[in-house]
Write a structure and sequence with these properties.
Order of helices and strands: HEHHEEEHEHEHEEE
CATH class of the largest domain: Alpha Beta
Structural class: alpha+beta
Strand order of the largest sheet: 1-3-2
Number of helices: 6
């Protein structure tokens, strides 16, 4: 499958499995899952046909493992703005995690910390390189270091999605190190 088609399918899945399922007439269950055949039928009925092979290829080859297929169902691994419970257990994080952003948001982050905005959780990366790639989507990246071990010791919960993204409800400013 050509790269452009893969990207189009991935963006289509993100929109409808994370943010706008009702736009194509699908309903996510409490865990964010929808039967694959229901998704494929809805996509075709709304002018964006996807074959089962294309869907499988996008899920398996996505470098960020954004989607999971299990028991004939599919869901986004994280990043939802619609109500879902991914049923991820709280786990102990590494001592440090990272968050990629851009300079125009740093002043607000210094005041308020990291907030989930329209999503359910703040997304954190296990390494600087991943955080830099995330921040680069909006411009020149600024990588913040999160004192995740200290946060956890102080009672904050962390979860890790199936694709390795760390999730927290909020990161207060006192747990952030800013580059000079």
């Amino acid at each position: 499958m050509d790269e452009r088609r893969m990207v189009r399918i991935s963006k289509y899945l993100a929109r409808h499995l994370r943010h706008d399922p009702q736009l194509i007439g699908i309903t996510l269950d409490a865990g964010g899952w929808v039967p694959v055949d229901v998704l494929l039928r809805a996509a075709a009925e709304h002018g964006f046909p996807i074959t089962a092979d294309e869907l499988q290829h996008v899920v398996e080859s996505n470098d960020k493992r954004r989607y999971a297929i299990e028991d004939g169902r599919i869901r986004a691994s994280q990043g939802h703005s619609v109500p879902v419970d991914l049923e991820l257990p709280a786990v102990e994080p590494p001592e440090v995690l990272y968050h990629g952003t851009v300079a125009r948001f740093v002043a607000a982050i210094k005041k308020e910390g990291l907030r989930p905005m329209s999503r359910h959780h703040v997304h954190l990366s296990p390494d600087r390189e991943t955080a830099a790639r995330v921040g680069a989507r909006r411009g020149v990246p600024v990588v913040l270091t999160v004192a995740a071990g200290a946060m956890h010791a102080d009672g904050h919960e962390f979860r890790r999605s199936a694709n390795g993204v760390w999730l927290a409800e909020h990161v207060p400013p006192g747990y952030l190190w800013f580059p000079s």
